[in-house]
Design brief:
The protein is an alpha+beta fold. The chain has two domains: 1-39, no CATH class; 42-200, Butyryl-CoA Dehydrogenase, subunit A, domain 3, CATH 1.20.140. It is built from seven helices and seven strands. It has helices spanning 43-63, 80-89, 93-122, 130-140, 146-160, 170-188, 191-200, and strands at residues 6-8, 15-17, 26-28, 35-38, 67-71, 74-78, 165-168. The strands form three sheets. It has a three-stranded antiparallel β-sheet with strand order 6-5-7. The chain has a two-stranded antiparallel sheet with strand order 1-2. β1 and β2 (15-17) form a beta hairpin.
Amino acid sequence: MAGSQLIACHECDLMQREVPLPRGGVAFCGRCGAELYRSHPDSFERTLAFTVAAIFLFAIANAFPIVGVKLQGQVIQTTLFDTVRTLYSEDMKSVAVLVFVTAMLMPAIKLFALTYLYLPLRLGRAAPHFALVFRMLRAVHPWSMVEVFLLGILVSVIKLENLASVVPGIALWSFGALMLLMAALAAVFDPRGLWTRMEATR
C-alpha cells in the first residue's frame, strides 16, 4: 500500500510515510515544507499516448526535408541527416556530432526507453532490465534538446529570407509539434507512479 511506504525528503532527509493523495494533490515535507510528491491523474495513459505520437512525429522529422531554399530557379531541400553530414564534411565535426547527439540520438533513446518501460506495463508485465532502462532514461533526459535545435533552425530561416526564398518543409512543422509533445511528456511523466505500477506486476 502507498500509505505504508517510507519516503525521504530530498531537502532535509526526513523519513516520512506516504499517504494517499486526492486527484491533483501535493504532499509536502512535515519539517521543511519541500514538495515530496504529487498526484498525476492518468499519468500512465497520457505518457504512453504522448510517446506513441512523438515517435511518429520524430520519424517524420527525420525522414522529410526541414526546409527548402529556392535560389535562381532551383530548389534545394535538406533533411536533418543531410545537415549533420554537411557540417561534418565542412570540417565542423564537433558541431555535427552535437547536432546528431542532441537532435537525433538522445531523443530516439528517450522515446525508445519510454516505449520499452510503458508498453509492457500496459500489457500487465514489467520489461526485463527495467531499472537499467529507467536509469538510462533519466540520464539522457538533459541531452534531448529538440527545442534548442528548432530555435536554431528558425533563426537560420529568418536570416536566409534576405538571400533566398525559404519554404518550410514538413519536418520543420513536425519538429515544432514534437517540441510541444516533449514538453507535455515532461509535464505528465511520473517516475513514482511508474515504479508503483511496475511493483504491482510482481
